[in-house]
Amino acid sequence: MQDIDYVLDFAVRLGKEMLVSGANLERVNIATELVCKHYGLNDLTIRVMNTEVAVGAKNQAGDYCTRRINVPAAHIHLERLRLLNDLSRKVCRETPDVKELNALLDGVKAYTYATPVVLTGYLIAMASLARIFGGEWQDILVVLFNTVLLFFLTSSLSRASLNRIITNALSIFACGATAFAFYRIGLAKNFFIIIITNAFFLIPGIPMVNAMRNILCGNEMNGILELLKVCLEVLTIVAGLGLFVFVAENWFSIPENAVTPHAGLLYDAELVVLSFTASLGFSIVFQIHPKELVFAGLGGAITRIVYILLLKGTDYRIVFVTLAAFAAALYAEILATVKKTPATVYLYPSVIPLIPGDLIYYAMLGVIWQNPAAFESNAVDCLLSLVGISVGFVICSSLSHYIRKIKVKKLFHPLSHEKVKK
Question: Is residue 408 included in any domain, yes or no?
């Protein structure tokens, strides 16, 4: 094998592992480009998609070579992503022998939480979200029960290689059955708060964020395809819930007060604390290293504080959501710069407080109870929130993207800078 073969093998494998661990396309593009350029390759052609990574390049002797690798479904592991990012920096900094590259990649061993710890993370996150959405202590207990059920049910269905669409529908149907059973015997106050909270266990939040970012950052086709996939998965969750409601209404008749909120207004301080714990719980689920958990949780608390302050100053949802999302992304970018790690590690936990759970809740009530006016008003607000989150992310990530591009150009065009100095 020639040197170019070793370099391209490493580049596509690195890109694949980063995507599987939760990286966005931009991050993978930059990492593969830097690796190839540091080994003197030119005429680069890099194609990074959610399903494959392909790199073509020419060495200094004029030999052209290509490599392509398929990418399996993502299993978010942000600590592994951090280590892979560190490896790409090390390779660019030290330029080790090309024959050692694949061994270095094989040697990346990330800290991984045991299954009981991951389940604990889910329980912390779901309990916090249930309270944020207005659930009382009885509802929170049922949410915790359903979270354990979902954790083992989705794991079993995944091992059985069932389609994600079927898994989502069956899982939310099971949650609906248990939640309604607890409601009927008086151990739950609000059926749909329980369901909406547990739906966040299934909703593909990270792919949704990456899809919107890709659309607004120039990777339109990848973003659109991924967004369509996400929408299909969300629709299956709604369909599973709708199927249960249809069955339950025909057998038992769900009273309307089952979906009427009972909880009072939460204090701002309580919202901040709950946002911290929700982000902390999801940080464990995302496999963030223990020493970074506090920083990830603080991101959620800071985002909530900014959101609350903006909400007191303006009634325009698109404005306060966009600025709060920008604050979350800025916090992540600052920490990423200081700690030399991907911003994704801090971004996803930080955005948890911006999930429009209450709007999704009322919009779904409009669908279930056939109330078009309620659905329309809440769906519009929900859409504005999602657009605002995406725009806030894109503005911050775009600024960071161009700053990185400028750094890359300076790194590989030193002669032009010497002329300027003269």
Answer: no
**Domain-located, residue 108:** yes
Mind listing the pLDDT tens digit for each residue in 226-261? 777 877 777 777 778 778 877 776 665 555 555 444
Same domain, 145 and 15: no
Same domain? 9 vs 155: no
The CA distance from 142 to 196, in Å, is 12
| Residue that finishes a domain, picked among 79, 112, 145 | 112
Q: How far is CA 118 from the centre of its chain?
A: 16
Burial per residue of 18-49, b for 16 or more beta-carbon CB atoms within 10 angstroms, e otherwise: bbbbbbbbbbbbbbbbbbbbbbebeeeebbbb
CA–CA separation, 379 vs 356, rounded Å?
Answer: 10
Mean pLDDT of 398-405: 65
Please tell me the number of Cα atoms within 13 Å of 107 on its side-chain side: 7
Residue 413 in any domain: the answer is no
Residue keyed to tokens 């080994």: 39
Q: Which of 219, 208, 214 is nearest to 74 (CA)?
A: 208
Nearest-angstrom CA–CA distance, 10 and 100? 10
- How many residues are recorded in the chain? 422
Within-domain flag for 420: no
